[in-house]
């Protein structure tokens, strides 16, 4: 446990150091810009490591939940734990996120701590990390496009569509299948299963917010199209009258 604690402290220090370096080299962009760059880097790194764990190193999370943690799984969880502690502290200090994101970070921290302390179910935690972080680059790209004034474009539309589709597929569909395999397996501890249920419920809470966003955006696009269609009709009518 001492080596794990040292690893978490080192990773936390690394994320803080990266953030400070970004602030010193690109301070004109502001604190949130640099924090989101750190978030983007963590998302890409976490997806790459956990994808390798799930698809190459193994075991397969759908068939072998509750197995002992491997060194690579531990490394992935320690890296992400250090990041979540950093980002949690940053969000609390700057008060940029709402309650749901803080709950998500708290549950992620507690879940990883529990998995590391028990020494098992690391493959499930890595699978959850993969499913959670695979949409992260798109979420950050959306924010950066807004800051650059390029969100209202074809690129912005593509990012939104890809984010919604990927979220529904990974967090709801695949996540639901993963939870089912977790619950029916006799290997994972009861507390791990409870954590899986909690994370899946949280995904549905986010899904409701995303559904509302998608509905509002589709309604806005429909009204814009309707107004443009009416304007073209009026213009054609005026042209014939002339």
From TrEMBL:
<keyword id="KW-0812">Transmembrane</keyword>
<keyword id="KW-1133">Transmembrane helix</keyword>
<feature type="transmembrane region" description="Helical">
    <location>
        <begin position="158"/>
        <end position="178"/>
    </location>
</feature>
<protein>
    <submittedName>
        <fullName>TLC domain-containing protein 5-like</fullName>
    </submittedName>
</protein>
<feature type="domain" description="TLC">
    <location>
        <begin position="28"/>
        <end position="219"/>
    </location>
</feature>
<feature type="transmembrane region" description="Helical">
    <location>
        <begin position="190"/>
        <end position="215"/>
    </location>
</feature>
<keyword id="KW-0472">Membrane</keyword>
<feature type="transmembrane region" description="Helical">
    <location>
        <begin position="74"/>
        <end position="94"/>
    </location>
</feature>
<feature type="transmembrane region" description="Helical">
    <location>
        <begin position="6"/>
        <end position="23"/>
    </location>
</feature>
<dbReference type="Pfam" id="PF03798">
    <property type="entry name" value="TRAM_LAG1_CLN8"/>
</dbReference>
<dbReference type="GO" id="GO:0016020">
    <property type="term" value="C:membrane"/>
</dbReference>
<dbReference type="InterPro" id="IPR006634">
    <property type="entry name" value="TLC-dom"/>
</dbReference>
<dbReference type="InterPro" id="IPR042512">
    <property type="entry name" value="TLCD5"/>
</dbReference>
<feature type="transmembrane region" description="Helical">
    <location>
        <begin position="35"/>
        <end position="54"/>
    </location>
</feature>
């Amino acid at each position: 446990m001492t080596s794990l604690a040292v690893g978490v402290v080192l990773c936390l220090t690394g994320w803080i150091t990266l953030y400070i370096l970004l602030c010193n080299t690109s301070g004109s962009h502001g604190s949130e810009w640099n924090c989101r760059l750190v978030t983007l880097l963590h998302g890409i790194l976490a997806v790459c490591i956990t994808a390798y764990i799930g698809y190459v190193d193994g075991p397969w999370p759908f068939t072998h939940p509750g197995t002992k943690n491997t060194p690579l799984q531990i490394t992935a969880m320690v890296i992400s734990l250090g990041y979540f502690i950093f980002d949690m502290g940053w969000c609390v200090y700057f008060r940029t996120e709402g309650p749901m994101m803080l709950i998500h970070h708290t549950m992620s921290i507690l879940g990883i701590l529990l998995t590391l302390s028990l020494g098992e179910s690391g493959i499930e935690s890595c699978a959850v990390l993969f499913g959670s972080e695979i949409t992260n680059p798109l979420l950050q790209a959306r924010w950066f496009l807004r800051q650059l004034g390029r969100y209202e474009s074809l690129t912005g539309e593509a990012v939104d569509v890809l984010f919604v589709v990927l979220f529904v597929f990974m967090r709801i569909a695949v996540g639901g299948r993963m939870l089912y395999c977790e619950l029916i397996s006799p290997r994972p501890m009861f507390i791990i299963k409870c954590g899986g249920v909690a994370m899946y419920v949280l995904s549905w809470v986010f899904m409701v917010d995303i559904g509302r966003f998608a509905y509002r955006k589709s309604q806005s696009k429909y009204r814009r199209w309707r107004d443009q269609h009416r304007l073209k009709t009026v213009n054609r009518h005026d042209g014939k009258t002339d």
